[in-house]
Amino acid sequence: EEGLDRFTHGYKDFGVMMMEDGSVRCMEWIPNARAVYLKGEFNNWNLIQYREVGFGKWELFIPANRDGSCPVRHCSELKIVIETKDNQRIERISPWAKYVVQCDHNQGFKWKFWNPPSSQRFQITHTRPRKPDRLRIYEAHIGIASERCEISTYRYFTSNILPRIRDQGYSSLLLMAVVEHSYYPSWGYQVTNYFSASSRYGTPEKFRELVDTAHGMGIYVMLDVMHGEASKNVLDGLNMFDGTDGCYFDDGPQGFNNQHDTRIFDYKKAFFLLSQLRYYVNEFHVDGFRFNGLSTMIFQDPSISGWSLTLYQRYFGRQMRTDGLAYLMLMNDIFHNFYPNLITISEDVQGMPALSKPVREGGLGFDYRLCKDAANVWAKLFNEMRDEEWNMHFIRQMLKENQNAEKKIMFTENHEQNEVSRMTLSRKLIGDSPMSESQQMTPQLDHGLSLYKMSRLFTHAFAGQGFLNFIGNEFGHPDWVELPSPSNNDNYQFARRQFHLADNQQMRYKYLNRFDRAVNKTEERFGWLKPNQAVVTRTHEGDKVMVFERAGLIFVFNFHPTKSYPDYKIPVRQCGSYKILLDTDDNCFGGHSRNQANVEFHSRNEHFENFPNSMMVYLPSRSGMVLSQSNLVVGYK
């Protein structure tokens, strides 16, 4: 009756919370209950009964102590006891619990009442950054962020990783696996407790400090959320919360994803998921969200996502889940109205029309879609072809496709390409080549370093309005990620990031790290990720050359493995003199500096390739460079 604002603030009404006078108010939505009780350490586990207030809601008030203090001690354990309509008595964790702690590794959670004294509450001091007009995203998992064989912490990430992200020139941080999940190797996809920031990494206050510190560095912070499906856990999750298959989920077979062994939400109960988003925005000052598991939300049969989804008719018909589509439209419309600076990103659903079109235009309303086109192209080229067999038109066609001018975030590889059993891009290109400066550069290493830099620069600049880097890939981290699990005897060897490789000046990883920083800093100044698209001015199959312009810059790539071109003619849209802004072959990036740093190229008023001007450049083999008009380079480097 109070509108969408109140409807989406459920976290302020439901759960167990202390009031201003020290009393405790408890509210739960349990439609299948005949009676509901609360018990915990605060009353020696005796049952206190809720009263039913209608529409499946149950309420309980616990008066303050005589001295006005809260009767439920901070961090004391609580449980809800439910008598169901079929005479079962079951124990549950509140779906609105703000803090849960795992008993043992990958075992069940205990619900702890989170109500720290004011002296222990972190006070937010920094304002949110302005909504960026393009995204340079650092995708990270808190648990793998340290070099030690352990689960890392919010505190460590705040102190050690945030400064790296800032210094590398990333404008945005995308955090995975923050929302609580019982099974650590699930990458946070099997969520159990939607209002609990994972206690594996520390307390809610430490997470709040992380976000605030990032804001102080000008970094925009986003979270992964999973609204398509949830963990099947019963004792510490939402599954069978009130003793039925339904409650928060679809009842019957349609409420199960047998492929992932998870539960599927009933979007008529949207207040719960919408409230979760508002909780993280309001309480932790999170700036945006990436939505995973969209195929479960938009298709009646989630396995449909395995089809070759290239035709629009795939997305119009009885196979679509209209309540899931309606939920996504409602969510995006609400949050973009309530929080104009908030950004929502959808995972890639290839071919899905209007995914990132505004709701008012008939779209689902996301700001960006995460696009796998580039990663798929590079995987095919690196895995199936030799350099000399690469097709320039294939690269151009796959990366430039941009249906309906929707904004895309591109990447060469993300966490999925870094999971166990998958060879990372750096491992594929570099292999076991010696990365120590004390050892001679091998042909394979020279080949690998060159293509690693070229593929990242090309992907960064060519097609999208955002670029995403997975933690460690900025310096070519050699190992995949394998989170500890029973299948690997809980081994943490590959569940960490070895940042010392980038910091050690005797190791060649420093070159990739420097190049990544230089690309971000150059984009920060010239803004090629803004919505304007690249204009391809030359594609030559025999020469293995591609040239395009974007944001007033000229990007020239020679993918040929052996041929350099001393006087190579390229089209130029804007007449003038040009200098090199960025060169993958620069020796400070591990290259050979075959072009002089201060060389100047002069365009001529000679029509070439349907463009009014042309210019002769020296184009070394297997290299890429960015050219800018000379007056813009002065003072830049």
Plain-language structure description:
It is a single chain. This protein has 637 residues and is α+β, with helices and mostly antiparallel strands. Among the domains are: 4-113, Immunoglobulins (Immunoglobulin-like, Sandwich); 235-264, no CATH class; 535-632, Immunoglobulin-like, CATH 2.60.40.1180. The chain has an eight-stranded parallel barrel. α2 (154-168) packs parallel to α3 (204-216), α7 packs antiparallel against α8 (392-400) and α10 runs parallel beside α12 (509-526). The chain is elongated and about 85 Å long. The mean pLDDT is 92. Its EC number is 2.4.1.18.
Task: For the structure shown, list the relevant keywords.
single chain, elongated, 637 residues, eight-stranded parallel β-barrel, alpha+beta, Immunoglobulin-like
Low-pLDDT stretches: none
Mean pLDDT: 92
Strand order of the largest sheet: 11-12-15-19-20-21-22-23
N-to-C terminal Cα separation, in Å? 60 Å
Can you identify the CATH class of one domain? Mainly Beta
Q: In the CATH classification, which architecture of one domain applies?
A: Sandwich
User: Helix content range of the residues, please?
Assistant: 10-25%
**Total number of strands:** 31
Largest sheet, in brief, is: 8 strands, parallel, barrel
- Tell me the radius of gyration: 27 Å
Shape: elongated
Task: Count up the helices.
Answer: 13
Examine the coordinates and then state which fold CATH places here, giving the name of the CATH topology of one domain: Immunoglobulin-like
Strand content: 15-25%
Task: Give the CATH H-level superfamily of one domain.
Answer: Immunoglobulins
Query: Structural class of the secondary elements?
Result: alpha+beta
